[in-house]
């Protein structure tokens, strides 16, 4: 399926406020945006795709650190009453993720310790079907708390969520552009990614990684990409590279159902563990 709107399930991709104000992003516009944090410091973006699930980039995950996810707030530093902070219980990185050479399979899922309650500030985004290919030229949006300029230091980041409109470029064309720039003989942008470009020099940047690239179809917002990498930020003629979510649709749903079944297995095992020793004690 190349053209048209993707098929999505219901109950996702809606926001209560439909007017896009100026930048920074206005409240309630991107209710699926989350900040992935370590010790209360923003490290990456992510998106809420279920009440216990956050989609992010694999390169955002550094070992077994204590992650929390902040949801429902456009201010990354101060926590408003609409926001919740949830510890991450488990992280699943794509089994074929590789950061070497060109980054591959840059996708990960975070399972929250408890489900979040949806509100006008907290909503899941939809993800597309496996066969969906976002068309070149589609206007989509990327959001995040990443650097505003390439030269800014890593600590000099905005407090308020930023938004930028980008036009989609398919990976084949994107590969031609970035390959030339990098003077590479091998392909640098491969299947499993999609690119976003703005003639105005808008782009994602460090700190935006893991965050969503979303497009609107029939008043429903669908996540087509995950911020992955780029050559610097905001250079005209240089698109940013995003993991193409539709390609990983099966991986996402498989991992989600595997984790839920393990969760319910643990739920069944716990009473068994408690009852069995009692049974042994009781046997003559
Ligand atoms: N890798 C960066 C991060 O960790 C994202 C870079 C995106 N760059 C770009 N020019 N679009 O936050």
Helix proportion range: 10-25%
Q: Please report the number of helical segments.
A: 2
pLDDT < 50 runs, ≥5 residues: 18-22
Kindly provide the radius of gyration, computed on alpha-carbon positions and rounded to a whole number of angstroms. Answer: 20 Å
Q: In this structure, how is the largest beta sheet organized?
A: 6 strands, antiparallel, barrel
The fraction of residues assigned to DSSP E strands is 25-35%
Q: Note the gap between the termini.
A: 66 Å
Globally, the shape reads globular
Give the integer mean of the pLDDT values: 89
* N to C succession of SSEs: EEEEEEEEHEEEEH
Report what the structure shows.
By secondary structure, the protein is an alpha+beta fold. 16% of the residues lie in helices and 28% in strands. The chain is built from two helices and twelve strands, in the order ββββββββαββββα. It has helices at 171-182, 249-282, and strands spanning 33-38, 41-50, 53-56, 67-71, 84-93, 108-112, 139-144, 162-169, 193-197, 212-217, 220-229, 240-244. The chain has a six-stranded antiparallel barrel with strand order 1-2-3-6-5-4. The longest helix has 34 residues, at 249-282. The radius of gyration is 20 Å and the shape is globular. The protein starts with 32 loop residues before the first strand and ends with a helix. The relative contact order is 0.18. Mean pLDDT is 89; it is low at 18-22.
